[in-house]
What does this fold into?
Amino acid sequence: MTKLNKKIFIESIKGFHPADQADKLESLPTNDQSSILKTHTKYFHPHFIAYLREETRDLTLEMIPNKHLVRLIQYLDLDDAVEILSDFETHELVKILSKLGSQQRERIEESLKYDENSAGRLMNRDYLAVKSDITVGGLIDNLRKSRRGPKDFYNVFIVDNNNTPIGFIPSGRILRSNRSRKLKDLIFKNIHLIRHDNTIEDIAYAFRQYGLVSAPVVNNENKMIGIMTVDDVVEIDHEESEDDMRKLGGLFVNDFYKGAINSAYSRFIWLGLNLLTAILASYVIDIYADKLQQMIAIAVLMPIVASMGGNAGTQAMTIYVRAIATKDINKSNYMSLVMKEFLIGSLNGMALSLIMGLITYFWFDNINLAIAISVAILVNLGFACLVGIIIPVTINKLKIDPALASGIVLTTFTDVFGFLSFLSIATYILNL
It folds into this structure.
């Protein structure tokens, strides 16, 4: 294995965007990452740490000496700093915070009081909020004179005397207006408020549903305490989508950058659960062992029935796990969606049962066996599509992540039901 030349590596990333620097660092073996971070952190852009993947960021933070980490934190936006520091143990967090400026420390401490993955934790406290009685010119002059406030902003938020948001003005509208115009003449009052305890899913839904660019975050008294912006929400939504995809595949973390042993352990948990469901399905087969001995064709065709049910169920489950995350499923449309999935399963079941029935007839020259597998596929596909929506919705109501738990439950249901239905139908029709 070629030894890493640190000097060449550092030269190669100079001028890179922080996100690209993060990617380059993550592509290195863990030992090389550690070596680089312990001695050459100062050559990275301070924002690179905000672009690291969550699963590799923890490892990275352990490698960076505290004095370098403090320097990085000082340059980060508040929401990024809070996200990074939230993973530290209390005693380590206290040490780092003690080396920050009083204003930054107080703001970070205030954000950390809110629940993880809530708007209060994720929001940015740098925002522009003013009263409506000033003019455009007055606002611009105040911005030029003041050293406080955000460097960039999408909207200017208008608040009342209680600091409650009552509207907003896009920055472009302000720039195009005469200096003498009052802000109250430019205000849009259809403002959407984000509560401090809103979850990631709630926030993403609001921005997607109402086409928001930025939105004020309010406390229990409806007083403005921060903002959420579309770039933060896009990042959050992307992370959630990646997380759902991994969980549907039985991966608890992204193991692309992990070592072989850690990756093997992560996948073993899922494979072990799958083994238990396979044993349960095999037990069902064992019940009909004497029937299988009488007709080997049944054993040949069983995997087809189970596979068709599993694939149909997975298709439905994938759609509805995502629909739960985006809040597209609710009480008013749930039953209609259930009926829709049953209809989809039945339609595909009829078509595929006819095809498989004909294949079975010409394959084994047995009309009764053809009828048996046709009925089994029809029944199993209808059942599989039903459980494909019922399972994730039910699991979600139990406060369990449907992306993580639905797959293993679906596999159990479709395999057991597929084998049981086909063997029962075949036993009856063939008089075994």
Observations:
- The beta strands are 129-130, 155-159, 165-170, 194-195, 214-218, 224-229.
- The longest strand covers residues 165-170.
